[in-house]
């Protein structure tokens, strides 16, 4: 028996139960991993609230899509890793990462370089892959581009803003507090807007001399969607990749047609489907961490059993950077 978080009904943090679960041995193509650290993501919050149902995940389930740990057993046919390897997981709704140990497909893990601590790997693998998808695939950021990134001091925002800066873009970030503004500046934002103190649309237009930005990255959703559209230049790109404040209103034809904008609602999984894509993207993430181009900002670590507090910190937008659960604390 191992300990894991189980969700039997959708709802608030109280639906997450800390209990014993029976863990079988890996079947063909599977491995067993003893988790060292588990990343906390808004995806986990969405799943707990009910989004897991839309992805056909039956109740009860164990949340979690990001972790790092040691391989303790391999099933028949596994050749990509061996017992004792340190691996990182960034997968979809069906991955039970909020657990001391887990059994999963070997195709969904990647090797962690020896120079990278498991806590850093768990904090960065899913968020780093998301950042890679955003700045290298949804819209290929480069010199001369101006981008707007909401929640710039969050786990994904911290990495994506650093990455976009390194690629030569002018980076505008929005945050909620002066303290977060300092962090966003450190993470590569050339301009930081505290949205509680000033209208971000007006400020973006001032910064861009009325032209607007090439691309907006919006994981906030309902509270920022209309304003994000207003910040776009003609033929700009709107990339929606979350809904922290709730799902945004439907995009009407006239809204898109006025500026001939491009709209993409994206999940990391939709861009990293094949193992070759996962290997290439994760290699880029880890290489950038190793060479110092990306610095992983860790907000807080909690024992896995205290996941409720971690979710509270994330939902209240109190956190900056990444939150990590330590499985053996």
From TrEMBL:
Q: What GO annotations for molecular function exist for this entry?
A: mRNA 3'-UTR AU-rich region binding; NADPH binding; quinone reductase (NADPH) activity
Q: Where is the Enoyl reductase (ER) domain?
A: 11-325
Q: Which InterPro entries match?
A: ADH-like_C (IPR013149), ADH-like_N (IPR013154), ER (IPR020843), GroES-like_sf (IPR011032), NAD(P)-bd_dom_sf (IPR036291), QOR-like (IPR047618)
The family database entries (CDD domains) matched by this protein are listed as: QOR2
The record's annotation in Gene3D superfamilies points to:
Medium-chain alcohol dehydrogenases, catalytic domain (3.90.180.10), NAD(P)-binding Rossmann-like Domain (3.40.50.720)
Give one Pfam family. ADH_zinc_N
Protein's name in the database: Probable quinone oxidoreductase
């Amino acid at each position: 028996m191992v300990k894991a978080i189980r969700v039997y009904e959708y709802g608030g943090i109280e639906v997450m139960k800390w209990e014993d679960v029976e863990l079988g041995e890996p079947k063909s193509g599977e491995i067993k991993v003893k988790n060292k650290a588990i990343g906390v993501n808004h995806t986990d919050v969405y799943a707990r609230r009910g989004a897991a149902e839309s992805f056909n995940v039956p109740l009860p389930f164990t949340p979690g899509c990001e972790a790092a740990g040691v391989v303790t057993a391999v099933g028949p046919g596994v050749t990509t890793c061996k017992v004792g390897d340190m691996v990182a997981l960034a997968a979809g709704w069906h991955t039970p990462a909020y657990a001391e140990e887990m059994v999963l497909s070997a195709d969904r893990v990647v090797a962690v370089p020896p120079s990278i601590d498991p806590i850093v790997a768990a904090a960065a693998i899913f968020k780093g892959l998301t950042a890679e998808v955003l700045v290298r695939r949804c819209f290929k950021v480069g010199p001369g581009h101006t981008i707007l990134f909401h929640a710039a001091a969050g786990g994904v925002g911290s990495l994506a803003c650093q990455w976009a800066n390194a690629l030569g873009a002018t980076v505008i970030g929005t945050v909620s507090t002066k303290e977060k503004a300092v962090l966003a500046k450190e993470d590569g934002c050339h301009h930081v807007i505290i949205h509680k103190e000033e209208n971000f649309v007006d400020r973006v237009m001032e910064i861009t001399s009325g032209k607007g930005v090439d691309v907006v990255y919006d994981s906030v959703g309902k509270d920022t969607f209309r304003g994000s559209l207003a910040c776009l230049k003609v033929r700009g790109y709107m990339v929606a990749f979350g809904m922290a404040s709730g799902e945004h209103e439907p995009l009407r034809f006239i809204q898109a047609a006025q500026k001939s904008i491009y709209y993409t609602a994206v999940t990391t999984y939709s861009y990293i489907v094949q193992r070759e894509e996962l290997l290439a993207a994760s290699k880029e993430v880890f290489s950038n961490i190793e060479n110092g181009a990306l610095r992983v900002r860790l907000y807080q670590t909690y024992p896995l059993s205290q996941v409720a507090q971690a979710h509270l910190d994330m939902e209240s937008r109190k956190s900056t950077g990444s939150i990590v659960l330590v499985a053996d604390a």
